[in-house]
Design brief:
single chain, alpha/beta, 2-enoyl-CoA Hydratase, Chain A, domain 1
Length: 309
């Protein structure tokens, strides 16, 4: 097996941000912007006697994805939980603005956001919050210009806080079983509402509520893939080749209508199993324990059923 094939067969969950980028893009096509050799590091972490990273936990650059020109940003969830800080946030914002401005020499045809984040870095809260808002604005501008922005979530940190909002703002979201998205993380909910509302130590509960299977079944994600870099690559290639829907008021109103209907249908559910039962899934309690093959077969059957409608 070649080095590229081996990389693409690797687990997305276990891979570093750089390994994900290397396996996702066409071999040898990645050109990094503001790489670690330039040592653009957070000026704040040293004040808290915390370790710093030469790339501040974010890899940004350009490359080819199945021959399509893309800009890509990948968060390193193993550094400070992939959090948004002054430098890491600015790198993503700068990348998105360059894509918006069709920066030479290789203007992109799509943007990939490899999200792996717990949200804003508490030590740089104001800068992190500002970065999240600027990222959301830049995504809206890109979508209005007709450029697809694709989020990929399958890392250990998931996409929580501002990262969860960013994922929801993208043109499409690709997620694996290990991916999790939410605005508020389990610990945050428990801290503010109590363990009776959400037991953050109940890992099965956490995955049932925020995990990839729930997100795809509820319509909050667009593609469900196996935990392989190659699977994320295939999904990204397919989505990057589609013409995105127009980002206009009609699109936003349609999305709002779907959200209202989802809330009315599922608002009283206390667990994902209740949601799945209400959606007509037989034996909903078995969904978390299904093998990947069985769950993908379930998705295919549901898709075929909806097509017949």
């Amino acid at each position: 097996m070649s080095a590229v094939a081996s990389c693409r067969a690797a687990s997305w969950l276990e891979a570093s941000a750089r390994a994900r980028v290397a396996g996702l893009l066409d071999q040898g096509s990645f050109v990094e912007f503001l790489g670690p050799e330039q040592r653009a590091m957070s000026p704040h972490l040293r004040q808290f006697d915390l370790p710093r990273a030469f790339d501040d936990g974010v890899v940004v650059g350009r490359g080819l994805l199945g021959g399509v020109r893309v800009f890509v940003a990948a968060q390193e969830g193993r550094f400070m939980g992939g959090t948004f800080g002054e430098v890491s946030g600015a790198k993503i914002v700068g990348l998105l603005r360059a894509a918006r401005d069709r920066a030479a020499p290789s203007p992109p045809d799509a943007v990939l956001l490899l999200l792996d984040t717990g949200g804003v870095r508490l030590q740089e809260a104001n800068a992190g919050e500002l970065a999240v808002s600027e990222i959301i604005r830049a995504i809206a501008e890109l979508r209005h210009a007709g450029l697809p922005v694709i989020a990929l979530v399958g890392g250990r940190a998931g996409a929580f806080g501002g990262g969860g909002i960013i994922a929801a703002c993208c043109t499409a979201l690709v997620i694996s079983q290990h991916g999790r998205t939410s605005v508020s993380g389990p610990e945050v909910i428990e801290t503010n509402k109590g363990v009776e509302e959400f037991d953050s130590k109940d890992r099965a509960l956490v995955w049932r509520i925020t995990g990839g299977r729930t997100r795809i079944l509820s319509g909050a994600a667009d593609r469900y893939v196996r935990d392989e870099i190659a699977a994320f690559r295939d999904a990204a290639i397919a989505l990057a080749g589609l013409t995105p829907p127009p980002f206009a008021c009609e699109t936003l109103r349609a999305a709002q209508t779907r959200l209202v209907a989802r809330r009315e249908r599922n608002g009283a559910c206390r667990d994902a199993t209740e949601l799945w039962a209400g959606d007509g899934i037989d034996e909903p309690d078995q969904v978390p324990d299904l093998t990947e093959d069985a769950f993908i077969a379930l998705l295919s059957a549901r898709s075929a059923q909806h097509d017949r409608r």
